[in-house]
Write a structure and sequence with these properties.
Layout (H helix, E strand, L loop, with lengths): L8 E6 L2 E6 L9 H9 L47 H11 L5 H11 L10
Antiparallel strand pairs: 1-2
Helix pairs in contact: 2-3
InterPro entries: LysR-type_TF_proteobact-type, LysR_subst-bd
GO molecular function, one term: sequence-specific DNA binding
Pfam family, one: LysR_substrate
């Protein structure tokens, strides 16, 4: 969900053709863990980078659909003014995004470990 209250559009691409899908439904989540849990429970389709699914695909708990249409995750990109001294919080986010982790859950856990002042993140 974006700040305006609208849902993100799902973007697909195959052989240079774009397909943008406005999704609707009863379930809206703020974390990838909840999205994966809902897919595992059979509540719908999850649209996330592959690393978010851990071993669920390899172990047969989830299957890929629309695979030819899914773009590879290009990574995170940050744009910020280089002339301004970054805040400690911003520096923490940049450091966490540079970590070689395999999921957003691990990234959030690493951020929480590095900064005890960050609340709402960590292991279950």
């Amino acid at each position: 969900m974006v700040r305006s209250g609208a849902l993100y559009v799902w973007d697909f691409d195959e052989d240079g053709g774009d397909l943008n899908v406005r999704v609707s439904g009863q379930l809206i989540f703020n974390t990838s863990e909840h999205i994966v849990d809902a897919a595992l429970a059979g509540l719908g389709i999850a649209f996330l980078p592959e690393e978010e699914f851990g071993n669920h695909i390899q172990e047969g708990r989830l299957i890929r659909i629309l695979e030819p249409w899914c773009r590879p995750f290009a990574g995170y990109h940050l744009y910020y003014p280089s002339r301004k001294q970054p805040s400690p919080a911003f520096s923490l986010v940049v450091e966490a995004l540079r970590l070689p982790v395999t999921s957003n859950r691990q990234r959030r856990q690493a951020m929480a470990i590095r900064s005890p002042n960050v609340s709402g993140y960590g292991s279950k």
